[in-house]
Amino acid sequence: MLSMRGIHKSFGALGVLKGIDLSLARGEVLAIIGSSGSGKSTLLRCINKLETIDCGDITINGERLCWTKDGERAATYASNADVRRILMSTGMVFQQFNLFPHMTVIENLIEAPCHVKGQTRDEILPYARELLAKVGLSDRENYYPSQLSGGQQQRVAIARALAMKPDIMLFDEPTSALDPELTGEVLRTMRALAAERMTMIVVTHEMAFAREAATHVIFMENGVIVEQGAPTEFFSAPKEERTKEFLRNML
Ligand code: ADP
Ligand code: MG
User: Fold this and answer.
1) Where is the ABC transporter domain (predicted)?
2) What is the pLDDT of residues 200-223, one digit of tens each?
3) Which of 98, 139, 144, 173 is deepest in the core (most CB within 10 A)?
């Protein structure tokens, strides 16, 4: 579903990703953990081209988003039309919800399928309602984001991303902006998605979620993957000293 090879990304003189390799098969849930500034958001943003990479290869759903030829140091991207099509198979959920504030909940869900995929309102409405039911917000269809709690807004944001029928969902610290009592409802929604075998990458500080819902965990520091593995081994018997220290501080 996703393969990243030799990903490098700098902001000016600051190297942020220094040779990242990872791959994800359909139905896998990858949790990415690591201290603030380690490059987690940048990695996620490179997958859907919110940031461009300097060099490396990214393949999504069997299609090459970008690649670097042997002996070259710069990545070439697919044509704009191909990039748009390839990225339709990804959906992203941000820390700060990012809903359209002037649109109701249901309009937020309908917007992208209408404008990007050219579906009519009537075509998308039943599925949008199905998604709202799935995230437990059927009764909030005509509310505006400002009339919802943070947890409800984040569940709308998840439903909105799902409305495009992505093959892979990217979550960047989806519960970090929420009060602790609202975190659970968002994590429950994400666990339900994982149980349905949605392919997901989740950047998170929620260690219990990573341990229980992920199929694979990556620990990043300073733009490199320090350690990775299945959650049971990763959390019960981390090998690297840096991982042990990070996990000690998280508990
Ligand atoms: P994380 O999500 O792990 O906290 P980020 O990927 O957000 O880390 O950031 C990694 C590093 O890159 C940080 O030092 C951050 O300040 C820097 N950075 C991120 N985005 C930009 C940007 N657009 N311009 C310059 N520096 C950036
Ligand atoms: Mg981040």
Assistant:
1) 2-247
2) 999 999 999 999 999 999 999 999
3) 173
> What whole-number distance in Å separates Cα of residue 188 and Cα of residue 144?
23
Total domains in the fold of the chain = 1
Q: Which two tokens stand for residue 125?
A: 């409405």
Ligand nearest to the CA of 95: 2
Q: Which residue has the tokens 């350690």?
A: 227
**Dist. CA 29–CA 135, nearest whole Å:** 19
Angle at 198 between CA 77 and CA 196, to 5 degrees: 170
Lookup: tokens for 189: 């929604």
Are the beta carbons of 113 and 163 closer than 8 angstroms? yes
Low-confidence ranges of the chain (pLDDT < 50): none
Domain that holds residue 18: 2-249
Choice from 7, 10, 11, 18 to test ligand 1 binding pocket (greatest atom count within 8 A of CB): 11
* CATH code (residue 69): 3.40.50.300
